[in-house]
TrEMBL record, chains A, B:
SMART domains listed in its UniProt record: cNMP
Coiled coil, from the record: none
Residue intervals of the Cyclic nucleotide-binding domain: 4-116
Protein species of origin: Chitinophaga filiformis (Myxococcus filiformis)
Record's keyword terms, sorted: Kinase, Transferase
UniProt signal peptide: none
Protein name as annotated: cAMP-binding domain of CRP or a regulatory subunit of cAMP-dependent protein kinases
Pfam families: cNMP_binding
GO molecular function, one term: kinase activity
Matches recorded under InterPro entries: cNMP-bd_dom (IPR000595), cNMP-bd_dom_sf (IPR018490), RmlC-like_jellyroll (IPR014710)
Length: 191, 191
């Protein structure tokens, strides 16, 4: 829980009291997912949002031909979940699985709402991350529709340098929407 | 202002008092932008978020070759603005201009914050639209990286049927990231 407490304090710039920490601990559940196992499978409703305490995961869809398309990566300090499914209780079109043994801290919609109402640091944090999600989603849309493969790779390297250490190249290529061959060419040419 | 009041009431499911309406009226400014004129130009800081009271607009970027890439369309009841620029006071990479004479209701960050603190209907609405933005951005990322041009067009037609009436075909093609020739083929084949 220490990473989650530090996360709320750093995002909100408020200090959590012991009582607030206790309430947060009571509302989040630990969930251990072994390497290459699912946190969420297509067709299921996303019942909780999940904070990565330790590990690495991805959100992806699978098209009719069986090709995977990666929407998001996540590492320590990131949230995983399907917003639409979580908000509207509808089956998800997405899958979430792990690259390594991963420890998630999960929370349901009702419990999150309770924490937002009772703990200012949580309320401020959630507001901040919704805004940051909107910003990073805008950037990702911009990159997908208007940047060249080279530019998309440079932007990824500048914005999330950790990703290049934590995820296999084939996965990075899928995230960027390019072939692994093109990615290899960009990396060797771009250094 | 009537559309904006109705918007806050419908999104929040609360009724605005006369005093609240008065405060909202005092904080929003009217801005008329003639057809094909800018609301925001690349390099400027996005100082306010803008609600479309009447008209039609688009958000787009221009790449080094001078090609336009459309990120968003907006019509009555939609908001236009660059989240990242607005939140962090940094120059925008985006342009916003209009397809017809457009009446915006604009608000600065400080005024929006004041309304959020004083008017529950505004606070609930802003929270709701942040979440909806996150959901629609996820869908747009999903469409951009994993759907075929045909599927992207079908999803647009199902989700925003108005867009096909309000925006030129060449603009729709740019939004979908396909050529106008491909869009023509899809439309004639898909009916």
């Amino acid at each position: 829980m220490e990473l989650l407490f530090a996360y709320f304090e750093s995002k909100s710039r408020l200090i959590l009291s012991d009582a607030e920490k206790e309430l947060i601990s009571a509302k989040f559940r630990s969930k251990h997912v072994r390497k290459r196992q699912y946190l969420l499978q297509e067709g299921d409703v996303c019942k909780y949002f999940s904070f990565i305490d330790h590990g690495a995961a991805r959100t992806y869809s699978v098209d009719e031909k069986g090709n995977e398309h990666i929407l998001h990566f996540g590492i320590e300090g990131w949230w995983m979940g399907d917003h639409e499914s979580f908000t509207h209780d509808i089956p998800s079109r997405l899958n979430i699985d792990t690259f390594e043994d991963t420890h998630f801290l999960t929370i349901t919609k009702d419990s999150l709402q309770e924490l937002i109402e009772k703990i200012p640091a949580v309320a401020i944090t959630i507001k901040t991350i919704y805004n940051q999600r909107a910003i990073s989603a805008e950037k990702r849309i911009h990159a997908a529709i208007s940047l060249t493969p080279e530019e998309r790779f440079q932007e990824l390297r500048a914005t999330y340098p950790d990703f290049l250490q934590r995820f296999p190249l084939g996965q990075i290529a899928s995230y960027l929407g390019i072939s692994i061959k093109t990615l290899g060419r960009i990396r060797s040419g771009g250094k």
